[in-house]
Structures are given as structure tokens and as C-alpha cells.
Amino acid sequence: MKKITFALLVCVMTTPAYAQLEHRLKTSAENRSTSGSNSTRETDAYQAEYTASYQTNIDPVHTTFVQASAIVTNSSVALNSLDDDIVNQTPKDEDHFILRLREAWWQIAQQSGLSKDVITLGLYRVRMSPYWIDDEIESISWQVNTTKTAWQMGLGEQLSSYNTSTTLNDQDKGKLVLWGQAEHDWAPYHSLHINSLFVTQHTNVNTNDISNAYLGPLNGDYLWLGIGGSHNWLALDDPTSRTGYHFEVTALLGDGDIFNNEKDMWQNENTSAMSVLAGLRFQPSAHDWFLGSTIAYASGSEDGKSAFFQSGYESNKGTYLGTRDQAYQFNYALNASLSNLVTASLFSAYQIDEAWSVNGAASSYVRADNTAPAYRRSRALETNQGDKDIGTGLDLEATYRAKHFFSLNNRVRAKFRASRFIVGDALENYDDETRIHLELMMEL
User: Fold this and answer.
1) Residue 380: CB atoms within 10 Å
2) How far apart, in whole angstroms, are the C-alpha atoms of residue 323 and residue 50?
3) 226 φ, ψ (degrees, to nearest 5)
4) 206 Cβ partners below 8 Å, 6+ apart?
5) How far apart are the C-alpha atoms of 421 and 363, rounded to whole Å?
6) Using CB atoms within 10 A as the burial measure, which of 94, 119, 162, 352 is most buried?
7) Which DSSP string do the residues of 322-386 spell out, in sequence order?
């Protein structure tokens, strides 16, 4: 709480040459239900959230920005359990009022003549990639954009959740992260990229205090190296093209504490693993209707030595549908982790008009190694030995956007999302799960 107050005071006390205040109100309701042959369990979360963003352009070089939210909810525990953006946080005791600092940074624009050349210091949402880093991190970073090339590099560490209802997980404390990304257009709107990410934990975490289900960087040093390419994937940059594609191959190398499911114990081991991501999207006609498919593979092993895992800063959601909508690639209800996984999906999206858009997806999930667990939210699921089929996911979303709310000059967005996960033979101890999400957001 003191950190939140201090950051807000710093922003307010800054004397700007130009200041801009934006604020919005969001209300939402979500239900998660699991249904089996004998029982049904439900979790309901309701919230009203006010978010304010304050940006000051002190001069042509220096800019400050702070964004914070105040949330009223029926249950902070239920709300946090349904928030896929805070997987690395642990809920505190039940509460109905939450304060959350989202960003607070200082940015320096270099006078280099490039389209973008900035250094950012503070609590900043790093958007390197949905599969690498898409999270708020206390960091210093450097971003440069030219006509054909863009690159970024940064160093940071999550020091706090900046959320009055949560704390950082024990296994996520003391992790220093160093990242770099370079992207170059080898042809107009066709790019190749190289990603690198290094995570080291400088505090020693007692594995006796960590759940055996956890999979991620722990008490060690890990390096992710990836190479890939894309065209029109996360944004429709090329107005003349009706296709979009993305591919990426990533290697994970390092050593640290891994839970060996074969020996049922924590061990310090070397890790060598890999993952593959790919996607293809078509626009069959001049109408804003899109069809596409994604596939993903991540290695796994019972002893953990070949088990791929992500950094913990990923979101696994992106705007690859062709519309403005954002999709959860690994099913909203399941939210599978990219580890010991083979998955494929078919999706379709339609921008009906300027206001309405709809999208849907069907996806299938199997284990890469049927001797190792499947994972969701970086936690192992109890699986049947020998069965590979994790299950099937179904997603549907409809979004309405308007520039005016009745007679008021306020932008609004209404969203309905429904997701269903049907368990496969490998998860016979689990029940099918359904998530329904309703949301209304208005800019004030």
C-alpha cells in the first residue's frame, strides 16, 4: 500500500508542461462451473473497477505515466482466482475493496531522428511477445524502431504485486530477468525475429515450501532462445494481403530445481527442451471474415529434464484473429500452459461492422509425453498414466464497440465470452469446466 501511495504522489507532484488524464469504468461478472456425474461446483465474481491514467509530457524528451485501479468486488479471493493475468501472485485474506497500481514509469526520448528511440524506467508493461513477456515488470528498457528494423532490450525484476489483495508467490520472488528482441522486415510486411530471455533467481527458495505441482524457473539460471517470422499476424499491417502467418521455434537451456515425477522428489537438474508455435490465417473474401488455425508443441518428460516451460511473464493471448479482439490461444476455460503439450485449433472471426465483432475457436489438447503431467497456470494436473488425450476446448466471444453511450460522448465496449473445456481420458479425475464472462467498459 505504501508503494502504491508513493508512486501516485510522485506523479501528482510532477509539474508538467502538458498533462492528460484518462479514466474509465468497467463492470464485469464471471462464472466458472465444473460439472461431473455426481456434483457441480461454481465460482462467481463480480466487480466494478475504476482505472485512471495520468500522463505528463514535461518537455519533448521526458514523459511520465501512471495508471492505477480501484476495484469493488463481492470476493477478492474469487476474483483473483479467475484472473489469468496474476498467475504469479497469491491471494491474501478475503476483501471487497482492492487498490492496484498497474504502471508507473519515466520515459526519455532520445533525439536520434529515429521513429522511436526511448529509454523507460519504472513499473512498465513489457509487451515483448504474448509467449515470452506480456506483463508489468519493474525495469529499465530501451526500444528502437527504424523503417525496417525494431529491437528492444531490458533488465528488470518483479518486486511486488502492487495489489492490496495479493502478494508475489514465493517461487517468483528474487527473479532477475534480462530480455532482448530484434525484428527485421526482409520484405515489405514480412519479418524475421530473434528473441532471447534470461531468468536467474538470486534468492534461495526452500523447495519444501513449494507445491510439487509447480513447473517454472526455480533456484537456477535459464535461457530461452527463439527464432521466427510473421506477416500480418498480430495486426493487419499490410492492407493488400488476405493472409497472415506466424512461426517460432524456441530452445530452453539451463539448470535449477525441477520436480522429478519419476522419483517423486525435487532435484537440481540441467534442462534442455524446446517448443514450436505456428499459425495461419486467411481472409476468403473482401468482407472482414477470417479463418485460421494455430498449432503448438512443447516437449515434456517424467524426470523434468526435457520439460519445456515458459518464463512466468507470458499471457498466451493475442490479436491474431484478424479483428481487434484478443484471443486466449490455449482455451479460456483451460488456460493450458505451454509444457508437455501438443495442441491444434481452428478459429473464425467476423468484423460485422464498425461496432460488432464475433469470433469462435475449437481446440484439441494432448500430452507430448504420456508419462509426464499436463499443466495449466504453471501447475501440474493429475493425469492417467498412458492416456494422452487432455481434452477439447470451445470458445465463443462477441464484442460491441460504440463511440457514444446513448446521448453521452463516451466510448463504450461490451463483451460476452463463453468457454468450455471437455476433459479427455488423461484427466478422468477432473470434470468439464465452463466459464462465462460479461463485461461493460466505458471511457469517462
Assistant:
1) 20
2) 26
3) -140, 150
4) none
5) 9
6) 162
7) SSS--EETTTTTT-B-SSSEEEEEEEEEEE-SSSEEEEEEEEEEE-SSTTS-EEETTEEEP--TT
Q: Count how many residues are written for the chain.
A: 444
Where do the domains of the chain lie, and which CATH numbers do they carry? 2-443 (2.40.160.100)
Specify the 3-state DSSP secondary structure of 256.
strand
* Residue in the block written with cell 513447473: 215
Separation between Cα atoms, residue 31 and residue 33, nearest integer Å: 6
CB distance 140 to 119 below 8 Å: yes
Tens of pLDDT, residue by residue over 383-429, are 888 889 999 999 999 999 998 877 778 899 999 999 999 999 999 88
| 60: its cell numbers | 519533448
Find the DSSP H helices in 247-300.
none
Tell me the pLDDT tens digit for each residue of 25-65.
999 999 999 876 566 788 999 999 999 999 999 998 999 99
Beta bridge partners of 30: 45, 437
Q: Which residues contact 67 (CB under 8 A, 6 or more apart)?
A: 51, 52, 53, 54, 101, 102, 103, 104
Max distance between CA atoms of the chain, in angstroms, equals 66
d(CA 264, CA 304): 11
Q: Is the pTM of this model over 0.90?
A: yes
Grid coordinates given for 200: 536467474
Angle (CA) 112-116-120 rounded to 5° is: 95
Record the cell numbers describing residue 319, joined without a space.
Answer: 490479436
For 235, list phi and psi in degrees, rounded to 5: -155, 150
C-alpha cell belonging to residue 388? 494422452
Rounded to whole angstroms, the Cα distance separating 408 from 391 reads: 46
